[in-house]
Each structure stands twice: as C-alpha cells, then as structure tokens.
Design a protein that fits this description.
The protein is an alpha/beta fold. A five-stranded parallel beta sheet has the order 2-1-3-4-5, sandwiched between helices. The N and C termini lie far apart (42 Å). The protein contains five helices and five strands, in the order βαβαβαβαβα.
C-alpha cells in the first residue's frame, strides 16, 4: 500500500504495553500509527497531524476517553473516533456515541474486528470530506458571476 494513502491511526491508551503491541500489529497491516498515552497528548497531536481515525481508551487518568473524544471532535470534527473499553456498560457506550464516537469496542479487542472498524471509519471520513469539498466547489461556482 502506498504510504501516502495509508490510513493514519492515533492510538490513545495509558497502558504502554497495549499501545506498543497494537501499534506493531497495525503497522504490520499497512497503517501509519501515532501512539499517545493520555488524552492531553491526543488533543495536542490532532493539531499538527493529519489523522483519519483515533482509537481511544475509555478509562484513562487525567482526561478520560469521553472528554478526549469531545476535545478531539471540537478541534477536528472530521476525525472518526473508535472507543475501546475493558469495562463496557450500556451507559458508557451511549455516552460515547452521543459525543460522536463512530464505534465502541470491548477489550481485549479482536484485531480483525478493529481493522474492519478502522477501515469503515476511514471510508466514512473520506466520503464526508469528498461531500464537503463538492459542496464548497458548488458554493464557489454559485458565488461567481460567470
């Protein structure tokens, strides 16, 4: 896969062993991975990096997964977010979806399930960016007098 078009994934989890292992496994499958260990780092990372999909752990010290989700979406609404949790509850799942999470997966996550969720999220992001670009072009063409 051409690295220019590789899906760029940000992993956000305070468990460094999990981040290291998952980064290696995703990179082996052709993804570009940015790994951070807290919500604050995740919010900073979206400022200057082009990220397609963020995979965010729900339970982290400092700002938790829901707040990380909210702050990432506030800065970059186009980034798709997949929440991961070791302690899934109906309430936390609903809360994550209300704040714009695209998916909600339980740990330990099956790598094939995660890859499919990332692929679907990237496709959704590309479709919405293409639609937005088409609307901007249409707007520009309407505003010109030619």
């Amino acid at each position: 896969m051409d690295s220019q078009f590789a899906t760029k994934v940000m992993l956000v989890d305070d468990e460094e062993e999990f981040i290291d292992l998952m980064s290696q496994r995703l990179e082996t499958r052709g993804l570009k991975v940015v790994a951070v260990t807290c919500g604050e780092e995740a919010v900073a990372a979206v400022e200057d990096r082009n990220i397609d999909v963020a995979v965010v752990d729900l339970a982290m010290p400092g700002i938790d997964g829901i707040e990380t989700l909210q702050r990432v979406k506030a800065k970059r609404p186009d980034i798709e977010v997949i929440m991961l949790t070791g302690h899934a509850t109906l309430h936390s799942g609903i809360e994550a979806m209300k704040h714009g999470a695209r998916d909600y997966l339980e740990k330990p996550v099956d790598l094939n399930v995660l890859m499919e969720a990332i692929r679907a999220a990237k496709n959704e992001r590309m479709t919405s960016l293409e639609k937005k670009s088409a609307e901007e072009v249409k707007h520009i063409l309407k505003s010109k007098s030619w």
